Amino acid sequence: MSALTETVNTSNELSVSERGLQGHTELSLLIRDCIAGSPSAQKKMYEKYAPGAYGIIRRYMYNDEQAAQEVLNDCFYKIFTKLEKYSFQGAFEGWIRRLVINTVTDHLRKNIKDAQHFKEVQSEDVYVDNESVDKISHKELLKIIESIPDTQRLVFNLFVFENYSHKEIAQLLSINENNSRWHLNDARKRLKEKINQLMK
Questions:
Q1: Which residue among 77, 84, 88, 97 is buried most deeply as judged by most CB within 10 Å?
Q2: pLDDT tens-place string over residues 116-127
Q3: Per residue in 45-65, pLDDT tens?
Q4: Is residue 41 a contact partner of residue 30, using CB atoms and an 8 Å limit?
Q5: What pTM does this model have?
Q6: How many CB atoms lie within 10 A of CB 131?
Q7: Helix, strand, coil shares, percent, the chain, to 5
Q8: In order of start, what are the domains of the chain with their CATH numbers?
């Protein structure tokens, strides 16, 4: 799945590996002014971080632009109301990314119907031909990922792109770890089938 991960990660997303806030006086002042309720500061922060946040959201909600925009608005409402809780430990981009993931997950979880059956989990990962993946555009890959069922897509995104463990996914989605593993495996099977069909 490495090629798939690398290809999808070329989108405009927030980087969690960027430097922290030490020495970032401009960003520190921007956060301070946003906390104080400055409209111009909030506008500046929105313009700076909204594109990356929206890139993450669209990976989860590719076919619903209106809902994605609503989630983006919810994200920034939470960002502006929770800025005082930011501890200046670690990258600010990482703090925003976690908030975005939690917000979009909350939105999607409301529409997930999980029967909580204990389904057999295959021990091996499903192989996806890297050469085939390399021939698919980023937009096509997003469409393929969006086409798989809600729970499978959500678990796949959280596990592959956000590096969440099955334990963390289970807690976040109110399912059990065995279900999380099954949904990931099923997502990979579906992606393999759809990629192979596209390449025929």
A1: 97
A2: 454 555 544 445
A3: 999 999 999 999 988 887 788
A4: yes
A5: 0.69
A6: 8
A7: 70, 0, 30
A8: 2-109 (1.10.1740.10), 130-199 (1.10.10.10)
